[in-house]
């Protein structure tokens, strides 16, 4: 839903800016002298000296009592909408529920956070893993796991990834009744102080 709204808003904004830019560009060119035709009479910009908002347009409503409250309210609404849009773009869609096929024709719902917690605990139990964070994304019928593992200095990444795939993620797939659980794993090293040896 957010992706669709984002694309529609970006498309409308792009079309609006394209139309405004084209109108200003065509109005600013001396078409009559160059190519022998002119823009229609209703065109808002008629020559190189025209501006988008002239003195008359800027000062027309300034003396009215309702003008400034209306302008401030519209700008406040625009600011709230833009902040919401920015928040929606920066926020990753966390999967709150997973649909599990219960083999009897109905679909059960599994809490996404509960599955994340189980995967985290199992991953943290692996030798060499200091900490784990899991986030489920995607669709309820096709979740995708994003994992971040912090490794101890003695950890063997290849072995950890193998045990993660064969053990932890296999258990998660089986418990949720999933045929597959695509997973992206990010490995980081735990920061530690250097030990002094005498």
TrEMBL record:
Origin species: Streptomyces zaomyceticus
The UniProt record lists the keyword Transmembrane: yes
Lineage: superkingdom: Bacteria
Keywords: Membrane, Transmembrane, Transmembrane helix
Residues passing through the membrane, by range: 66-87
Protein name (database record): Alkaline shock response membrane anchor protein AmaP
């Amino acid at each position: 839903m957010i992706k669709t709204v984002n694309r529609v808003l970006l498309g409308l904004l792009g079309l609006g800016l394209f139309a405004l830019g084209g109108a200003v560009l065509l109005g600013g060119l001396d078409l009559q002298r160059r190519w022998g035709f002119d823009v229609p009479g209703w065109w808002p910009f008629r020559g190189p000296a025209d501006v988008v908002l002239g003195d008359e347009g800027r000062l027309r409503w300034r003396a009215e009592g309702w003008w400034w409250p209306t302008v401030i309210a519209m700008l406040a609404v625009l600011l709230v909408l833009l902040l919401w849009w920015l928040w929606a773009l920066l926020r990753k869609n966390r999967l709150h529920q997973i649909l599990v096929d219960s083999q009897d024709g109905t679909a059960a719902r599994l809490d996404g956070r509960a599955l994340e917690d189980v995967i985290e605990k199992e991953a943290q139990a692996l030798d060499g893993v200091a900490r784990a964070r899991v986030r489920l994304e995607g669709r309820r019928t096709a979740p995708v796991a994003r994992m971040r593992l912090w490794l101890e200095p003695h950890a063997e990444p290849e072995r950890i990834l193998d045990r993660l795939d064969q053990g932890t993620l296999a258990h998660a797939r089986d418990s949720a009744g999933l045929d597959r659980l695509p997973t992206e794993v990010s490995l980081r090293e735990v920061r530690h102080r250097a030990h002094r040896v005498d």
